[in-house]
Amino acid sequence: MRMSAKAEYAVRAMVQLATVDDGTLVKTDDLAKAQGIPPQFLVDILSDLRTDRLVKSHRGRDGGYELARAAADISIADVLRCIDGPLASVRDIGLGDLPYSGPTASLTDVWRALRASMRSVLEQTTLADVAAGALPEHVCVLADDYRRQEGARGHSDD
Fold first, then answer.
1. How would residue 110 be classed by pLDDT, with cut points 50, 70 and 90?
2. Entry pTM
3. Do 25 and 62 contact (CB within 8 A), yes or no?
4. Whose CA is closest to 80, among 41, 44, 113, 45?
């Protein structure tokens, strides 16, 4: 999976919004500054998030943005799908419609397993989890396994 800069910025902005008290509005410039996101890029991101009803905007001098529902009810997958579409796709073709046959026929199940694996992390990790630094146990186990594997390889790029 390759995450776009826009999707990564969107997740960061949403986690930042998850740290404020309910009913507190955050101005775009303050949000951009807090996360080092280019302000004009953030305006476009917030527009997409608002269209998908993940954030609410309030106009006026005292306006700003807030989460549209509780941070515990918004998964990382919700944000990523809003910005980049399906979590794992192959040439924008439905997995059941891939033209695989013969020795490549089982590739469809590889892609299904990949999608299921990503869902188990991204759909079960909420903005509240990330903001609190309290990730689901299975996510911590996977992250620890990854760190161990990378340590054994002597690098951390993959």
1. confident
2. 0.86
3. yes
4. 45
